[in-house]
Amino acid sequence: MKTLSRGRALGLFAAFACLPACARRADVIVGSKDFSEELLLGEMYAQLLEHAGLSVERKLNLGGTQVALEAIRHGDIDLYPEYTGTALLTTLKLAPMSDSARAFETIKSAYERRYDLTWLQPAPMNDSQALAVTPATARRYRLSTLSDLSRCAPQLRLGAIPEFTKREDGLPGLQRAYGGFAFKSIGLFDIGLKYRALETGNVDVVVSFGTDGRILADNLVVLKDDKHFWPAYHVAPVVRRRVLAIRPLIASTLNALSPLLTDSVVRGMIYDIDVRKQEPPDVANAFLRRQGLA
User: What pairing do the DSSP bridges indicate for beta strands 185-188 and 157-160?
Assistant: First the structure.
């Protein structure tokens, strides 16, 4: 009976031990942050790329902005959805820009220079911060703009997430840009509870985001930022440039989706997820099928 040499045996052991780790890497690894809209967008990107013939691994629900950025910089993911306002203010720590086109070019250039990442085409949807009220409150106080609210704030109670009272793009910045905004009281809530506080009459105004599903569900009035204080938060895929050079199909595939993602479209899908409790992959697939993309 033949016996294996020690070297041959070790070689075979190493080969078998490597099988799981050495399995073929997916063509693209798609990541996302850890909230409904990111899960939806990450799933859309993944399904579109699969439909285009690429093998895809999903690493969704990673965490916040810094976690996602570190993951893509270290090659753990190849792309994820990011927001121009977040990149400008939080990652690059630059001043707000009201010109969204100029902001995008600034961000794209900085990401390529600093991180070897690039931005694909941004969507028209704008998930910017906002302040929202019920229709009854809007009528009673004649509110349609943030200027209106700044004057009426002493009569109203604000419901906010904790960081809103401290961040430069939150209440301190609003007070400098508009004046006023001295609310009768400020209640601090977890992100999922602030709309409940508005519904139950515990607050009169809530901090919101442009594509929140609760805006649609509760028929809320989003007050116009008439002094253009907040920068735009357009979403786009951020991609590792090395991966894009190897697989240019990624750009053409995902760029076909971007123009379809408007505020009302995304708000409706987030409503399906957060209010109707549908799963993000199912909501993503239904939309892509309606558009003939999957």
Answer: parallel
